[in-house]
Specification:
The two termini are 39 Å apart. The protein has one domain: monomeric porin ompg (Porin), CATH 2.40.160.40. It is mainly beta. A 14-stranded antiparallel beta barrel has the order 1-2-3-6-7-8-9-12-13-14-15-16-17-18. A two-stranded antiparallel ribbon has the order 4-5. Helices cover 7% and strands 52% of the residues.
Length: 324
């Protein structure tokens, strides 16, 4: 109970509210930036702000790149309802490997240069029939598309403290196009809680930048996140995040993962999560739960996540990763 109390107390600490007011609800542009990344994270309801420490950290929290021990590449495809699809590609590697350094140790030192990562996000909303101001079909179609390129760097300041920063180039097209830039900041503190590895993180994403369509411009969905991750055993993970978006109410996200080793280099994983962001009276049916599974074969990993959106339908996310 002491462990759970510590995780809850940390994650439920009140987030800064200066720019996160009720009048900002549902006013952010670039909403695709909130759709997540890899299938493992989605299976855990995105409660991975403190946990992610591979190439996907460039999306979730760039400070997590500081824990990278190898090159890592991943590709993800998300199949949504109504012909919407979402693709994500990421790559990261320790900086010393570029400079000819030796293999990294898990216990990071301030003399090490951290790791660099990059990611590309693309969302296609499918063809939509165009109507005029009176709601009459014009006989034309248009296809909204969004994309973002992210480059980030994570650095260990001390043995237990990591920091990171990433920059983003964002473009969005409905019928007209808009583009802007933004950046993320993050930090992680990791230590042993009793005998169990524990990590706490804090970060802000999508900071700065506005998307301007014709005469109207809107802020990006800036989000504050406080994350916690505990590893009760070698093969289990418990995560609890508190997320405060500028354009919505703060909400909790909880995730769990259990890995089952089969042979050296081979393991299977089961995941489950709960995220209150999608718990709304506007959509009937199950919306807040997520589940997933994965398998690791030597250096390859395959992951799947299922996310229901109630009456809108189920969504699925698939990831293929390789570390080398």
């Amino acid at each position: 109970m002491k462990i759970i109390a510590l995780m809850l107390a940390t994650a439920l600490a009140p987030p800064a509210q200066a720019a996160f007011r009720d009048k900002d609800a549902a006013t952010g542009a670039g909403q695709f930036l909130k759709l997540g990344a890899d299938a493992r994270s989605e299976g855990m309801a995105e409660a991975v702000h403190a946990e992610s420490s591979d190439a996907n950290a460039v999306y979730w929290n760039p400070a997590g790149l500081a824990g990278l021990e190898y090159r890592h590449a991943t590709i993800t495809h998300g199949a949504y309802y109504q012909s919407v699809f979402y693709d994500y590609v990421a790559y990261a590697q320790p900086v010393p490997s570029v400079l000819g350094g030796s293999s990294r140790e898990r216990e990071l030192r301030t003399s090490q240069l951290g790791a660099f990562g990059a990611a590309l996000i693309y969302m296609n909303a499918g063809p939509i029939s165009e109507v005029d101001n009176a709601g009459n079909p014009t006989g034309q179609n248009f296809t909204p598309q969004d994309a973002a390129f992210i480059a980030g760097w994570g650095l260990p300041l001390t043995k237990n403290l990591d920091v990171g920063i990433s920059g983003k180039y964002i473009t969005s097209r409905v019928e007209e196009s808009a583009e802007t830039g933004a950046f993320d900041l993050g930090a992680r503190l990791h230590f042993l809680l009793f005998t169990m590895p524990y990590t706490i993180s804090a970060g802000i994403s999508n900071l700065g930048g506005r998307l301007r369509f014709i005469k109207e411009q809107e802020l990006l969905p800036t989000t504050l996140t406080v994350g916690n991750t505990l590893r009760p055993t070698k093969n289990s993970v418990l995560s609890f995040d508190m997320v405060a978006p500028r354009d919505g109410d703060p909400y909790p996200a909880l995730g769990a993962e259990y890995r089952v080793p089969v042979d050296p280099g081979m393991a299977f994983a089961l995941r489950v999560g709960y995220q209150h962001r999608t718990n709304t009276n506007d959509i009937s049916g199950a919306t807040s739960l997520s589940a997933g599974a994965g398998a690791t074969f030597s250096r390859f990993s395959v992951d799947y996540a299922w996310l229901p959106y109630g009456a809108l339908g189920d969504t699925h996310r698939f990831s293929l990763s390789y570390r080398f």
